[in-house]
């Protein structure tokens, strides 16, 4: 484990697209040379015939896209990768890049020599990185957070242990690569990032990777950028000769397809698999491989893409999880990353495995049954473990009906009977009413019979109409004085 480092604010990093084809002159039968860590004197860094460089970020550059895509701000609230060392076996790392200040340990360097021993190991104070690939990968993993998050590595608190292949990974012999892997394990690293892929299964490299896995190191490797078709129509036979066996199986890439390796494919910004990302049942996980700004030697940045940098993202996510849960084994760490991934297209894919890595979900994931996971494709853990490089992934739950067909039928009959009983209870009064009327429409006989009427009240007395006053009228007349008789009209007087 590395000691915590002090974060320095300035920049960030990511990846670069490369296709690494195994040279045809590889001698696969060479005997693995015994690595001699520190046994040779320090050698001066070799000059580069061509040096990759970059440019400064624009003044108006916004937050680094991966921060949002991977949900890193939420993840950083829980862990930053402190105390975790990630070995980067690559083209070297420019430790003087401002983004990598305090993030790079003094590593080792392997130079191929035309002698029986094949290579020389040194520990230079300052590594060169001629193509810039290793610096980009290291920055993607461990670069410091810049002001405004314009750049940042996935695990800005982690430390990178660089293992440089001076002549280029694509020109190294299998024994040289095997010695480089052993060197990283001897340095007590926690995670080994292998951002390269070959179509040749070299026994020395296979044995070295197996030793790393047995030592408890999580080995993370790139699926490669050859764009094979997997079981959809690849032409390889798995032996690396590209001739095919007619069954549509893709050419496995190595070290990605070795047993116990966590293999990473790439998706684009839209979350869909990149066509250049290799496919196969040995792909376990995916990261973002679209064009991104990456750290370049000399302090600048450039734009690159590919599975190399998707792999670096997964290594960074693993560093975050291991920082928070330091007691996890490599297998448990791999399971946590795959079980918490976001599936692409709703299920496991040959280019994306269990899905896109999700650092925050991995940090908050509740462990399942652990070693009881089965293979998502076959459901057979034994067959899954037999495939090279396959880490068992807990299958995505299938959509299943809530009830079995038998239970659904029984529930339907029960519901029908209950409905019939309810209708019978509610309809009983209407049935009785219909029976009373002889099952004819209309009112019942009782309803048709006229209702009995009450007798009409007697008419009022009509005496007042005939001029006969009643008692009240008579009493009133008795109290009224008599009027004098009317005087005759003047015209009627007698003269």
Helix coverage percent = 25-40%
CATH fold field value of the domain at 65-386: Rossmann fold
User: How would you describe the oligomerization state of the chains in this entry?
Assistant: single chain
Using the coordinates above, name the CATH class of the domain at 65-386: Alpha Beta
- CATH homologous superfamily of the domain at 65-386 - what is it? Peptidase S8/S53 domain
Helix-strand category = alpha/beta
Count every beta strand, where a strand is a DSSP E run of 2 or more residues: 10
What is the average per-residue confidence, as pLDDT, rounded to a whole number?
A: 78
Strand order of the largest sheet: 3-2-4-1-5-6-7-8
Distance between the termini: 162 Å
């Amino acid at each position: 484990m590395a000691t915590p480092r002090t974060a320095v604010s300035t920049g960030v990093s990511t990846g670069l697209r490369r296709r690494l084809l195994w040279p045809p002159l590889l001698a696969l039968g060479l005997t693995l040379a015994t690595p001699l860590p520190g046994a040779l004197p320090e050698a001066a860094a070799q000059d580069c015939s061509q040096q990759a460089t970059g440019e400064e970020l624009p003044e108006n550059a916004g937050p680094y896209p991966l921060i949002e895509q991977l949900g890193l701000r939420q993840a950083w609230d829980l862990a930053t990768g402190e105390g975790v060392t990630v070995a980067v076996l690559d083209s070297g790392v420019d430790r003087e890049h401002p983004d990598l200040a305090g993030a790079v340990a003094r590593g080792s360097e392997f130079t191929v020599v035309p002698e029986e021993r094949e290579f020389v190991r040194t520990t230079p104070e300052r590594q060169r990185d001629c193509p810039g690939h290793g610096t980009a990968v290291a920055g993607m993993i461990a670069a410091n957070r810049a002001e405004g998050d314009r750049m940042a590595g996935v695990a800005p608190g982690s430390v990178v242990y660089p293992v440089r292949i001076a002549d280029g990974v694509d020109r190294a012999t299998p024994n040289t690569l095997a010695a480089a892997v052993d060197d990283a394990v001897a340095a007590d690293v926690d995670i080994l990032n292998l951002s390269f892929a070959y179509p040749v299964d070299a026994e020395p490299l296979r044995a070295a990777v197996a030793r790393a896995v047995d030592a408890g190191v999580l080995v993370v490797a790139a699926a490669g950028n050859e764009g094979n078709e997997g079981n959809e129509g690849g032409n390889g036979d798995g032996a690396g000769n590209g001739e095919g066996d007619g069954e549509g199986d893709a050419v496995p890439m190595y070290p990605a397809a070795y047993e116990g390796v966590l293999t990473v494919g790439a998706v684009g910004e839209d979350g869909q698999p990149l066509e250049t990302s290799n496919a196969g049942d040995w792909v376990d996980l995916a990261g973002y491989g679209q064009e991104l700004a990456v750290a370049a030697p000399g302090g600048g940045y450039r734009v690159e893409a590919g599975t190399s940098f998707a792999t670096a993202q997964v290594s960074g996510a693993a560093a975050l999880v291991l920082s928070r849960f330091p007691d996890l084994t490599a297998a448990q760490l791999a399971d946590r990353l795959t079980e918490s991934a976001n599936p692409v297209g709703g299920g496991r894919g040959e280019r994306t495995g269990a899905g896109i890595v999700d650092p925050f979900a991995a940090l908050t994931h509740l462990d399942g049954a652990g070693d009881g996971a089965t293979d998502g494709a076959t459901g057979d853990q034994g067959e899954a473990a037999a495939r090279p490089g396959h880490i068992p992934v807990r299958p995505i739950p299938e959509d299943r009906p809530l009830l079995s067909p038998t239970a659904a039928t029984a529930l339907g009959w029960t519901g029908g009977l209950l409905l019939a009983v309810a209708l019978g209870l509610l309809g009983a009064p209407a049935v009785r009413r219909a029976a009373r009327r002889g099952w004819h429409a209309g009112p019942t006989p009782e309803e048709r019979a006229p209702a009995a009427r009450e007798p009409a009240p007697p008419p009022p007395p009509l005496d007042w109409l005939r001029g006969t006053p009643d008692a009240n009228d008579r009493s009133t007349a008795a109290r009224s004085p008599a009027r004098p008789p009317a005087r005759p009209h003047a015209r009627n007087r007698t003269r």
